[in-house]
Amino acid sequence: METPPFGNAGACTHCGYCLPSCPTYRVDNDETESPRGRVSIVLALAAGDLTPDEAGNALSRCLLCRACHLACPAGVRPGSLVMQARLLAPLRPTLASRLLHRITDSHRLTALAALVLRWYRKLGWQDFVRRHAILARFSALERLESLLPDPGPEVMFTASPPEASAAGRPRVALLCGCMARLFLPHVAPAAANLLVWTGCDVVVWQGFGCCGSPYREAGDGARFRRQARRTLRAFAAAGPVDAVLCDSANCAMTIADYPSALADDPDFHPLARELVAKTMDFNTFLLQKMPHSPLSGALPECESVAYHDHCQTRFELGIIEEPRKLLDMLPVPRREITPPGTQTACCGAGGEYLLRQPDRSQAIRERKLDAILATGADCVVAGNPGCMLHLQAGLRQRGARVRVRHLAELLWSAINKPLEPKRGTP
Ligand code: SF4
Ligand code: SF4
Question: Would you say the pTM of this structure is higher than 0.85?
Fold first, then answer.
């Protein structure tokens, strides 16, 4: 077995500067759940002092959030090291994750399941199932069901993809993530409509299943490469585009890893590099295209907003100001979520972490929920469906009347027409 290059793990001085930044360490101050503890585990794995199984189990509770990367004065990157180590010791799939992947790996099954879920909520079955705890004996299903948001505003595609771009109009492909297609079907139409409104021709790109994000994070290299090739085939079929945008922050992070995952594949590696070169952060692109003036539309469903950062987007790409500048165009004030002790905080969703480590995931979320409620904002805005579902489920459990919305959804509301005020709990 070839040992992956574990970067500069040996440069760790055990100084501990990374400890306060780590959401898993802050749960119970356990050294093995800290960044420096994980660096030691990776080094022990590389030295053969731990078996892959032992190391894999010890590393399974890392969220891969990368908050520790910015905190480390020696430039050690514990989150990336954990991801490399998982290639030697992949996380085992759970029942809930198997069920979810069975659906999301196929775009047809995803579309069918999204339709079923839509009617499940519309016909009131969701209320009935939850009120009577019908799924209490099926923990995997109950966990998945608890993530379902309440029915949100419906948004239709009002812009059809043109056959050919008008001269001067950028032609962009909107990659619609599987979690949004499944659980938040209004996000893609809102994002597409918004892009058309800013003057783009939009190719809506849905027929690829899943981008492979869960497999990348679990260390399942074979399945990750399979999904990457599927996505690349869809990219090639979409025709020439000037930019590729993702409505889900996690998909953008995943695509960035395609070239290294397919480095030995001469058929797909050039295409992977082309896709990465064209992929732009959704917020950054939008900020360039939006008129730099306040949006005049009303937002009757919220009085103030707060932005929740997707960890990898913030810590890996450094995208912090862009979504906030976009929210500042809205006709409502923006509040900053400031958990005590750190600049920002993970919500505990962490891709499939919320399914694999439900107790720890919820313990991490509690701190974030406290910080959200302390802002007084009645709408949390985010760009990653996993975070949105996890936060909304937590807010619902607390009985808080705070909605969670995708940034594209809220901007489009302010541009298009006021949303109908919702009744009852969000
Ligand atoms: S990972 Fe970096 S910050 Fe953390 S203990 Fe090691 S050297 Fe210090
Ligand atoms: S990636 Fe996140 S959870 Fe993992 S060690 Fe770093 S700060 Fe902790």
Answer: yes
